[in-house]
Design goal:
334 residues; 2 strands; 2% strand; Proline-serine-threonine phosphatase-interacting protein 2; actin filament binding; coiled coil
Length: 334
């Protein structure tokens, strides 16, 4: 059985001191604060995950990304955007999970606070009662000690007055001595009664202190265990999110493996082909020869898709004086 450390290490020599108890309460408050900080951390992380997830979803749905690609690469890009959307959805779901975990921590923290409050109220009441009785006992002791001094002074006065005072004065001294003895007896009885009451309260306080320490230690064990498990669970959730993301990215890699350069090129050619024959060569056309051979009313236009063979000039263009083309003479003026 585990030793209860709180009750064995938080006593104090001073009866009315609450140093040990206060130290425990402060530690429990610090633990509750630490749980609240982790709760706030999860809420902030949830906001980040939600914002990131929604941004990914908007990116995958609204931002163009290779939308004019064809065939296998187009399908790979579609898978890519789908998986990015899936990653975004996964992060949004993780945000909701983190909020639920934060709510569980809040419930745990508030539950511990409620149970602690009951014990603290009992301890506060008994501390108050103990302190009041301790104060009354100290006052009774002070009065008792004063009555002892009064009685001692009265006895000394009687001894000193022997054969020195009259009988009447002697009688007054004896009356006073009797009164001081009566007062002493009353104060002694009150003092002892207060001592007894204080002892009963001390025993009650000690028993309640032990029970409170055991309860607080049990609570602290539960809190540390819960906090540790919550952290462990949080890390597992993040690891699982990484696995989900990697699964999505693996789907993208698989789609890229199915991407075929040859098929995409062939697909483009089949869809956008414009012809298998190159254009005919551009040849020289002699304007004058075309005019001479032109017959009115006859369409000399070349057949579609074919160019007519043009005549070759009879003389070269380097003739310094004339250039003759099929009976036409042109004079070159310098």
């Amino acid at each position: 059985m585990r030793e209860t450390l709180f009750k064995n290490n938080f006593w104090c020599g001073d009866l009315i001191s609450t140093t040990g108890y206060d130290s425990i309460i402060q530690h429990l408050n610090d633990g509750r604060k630490n749980c609240k900080e982790f709760e706030d951390f999860l809420k902030e992380r949830a906001l980040i995950e939600e914002r990131y997830g929604k941004e990914l979803i908007n990116l995958s749905r609204k931002k163009p990304c290779g939308q004019t690609e064809l065939n296998t690469l187009r399908r790979a890009l579609e898978v890519f955007k789908q998986q990015v959307d899936s990653v975004g959805q996964s992060h949004v779901q993780l945000a909701q999970i983190l909020r639920e975990e934060a709510k569980k921590i809040e419930d745990f923290r508030e539950k511990q606070k409620l149970h602690r409050k009951k014990v603290e109220l009992i301890m506060d009441a008994i501390h108050k009662n103990r302190n009041m009785q301790h104060k009354k006992t100290l006052e009774a002791k002070r009065l008792y000690e004063q009555r002892c001094r009064d009685k001692d002074e009265a006895e000394q006065a009687v001894h000193r007055s022997t054969n020195l005072v009259t009988a009447k004065q002697q009688e007054k001294l004896f009356v006073k001595l009797a009164q001081t003895k009566t007062a002493l007896e009353d104060s002694d009885r009150v003092y002892q009664m207060n001592i007894g009451a204080l002892e009963r309260i001390r025993e009650e306080w000690q028993n309640e202190h032990i029970k409170a320490c055991e309860f607080f230690e049990s609570q602290e064990c539960d809190r540390i265990n819960y906090f540790r498990n919550a952290l462990w669970l949080h890390v597992n959730q993040l690891s699982l999110e990484c696995v989900k993301n990697d699964d999505s990215y693996e789907e993208i890699r698989k789609s890229l493996e199915r991407c075929s350069i040859e098929k995409d090129i062939e697909c483009f050619v089949n869809i956008r082909r414009t012809g298998t024959l190159p254009p005919a060569p551009v040849v020289y056309e002699n304007y004058y020869n075309s005019q001479k051979n032109a017959v009115p009313g006859r369409n000399n236009a070349p057949a579609p898709g074919r160019r007519p063979k043009l005549p070759i000039p009879a003389s070269g263009p380097v003739d310094p004086e004339y250039c003759t083309v099929d009976g036409y003479s042109l004079i070159h003026h310098h």
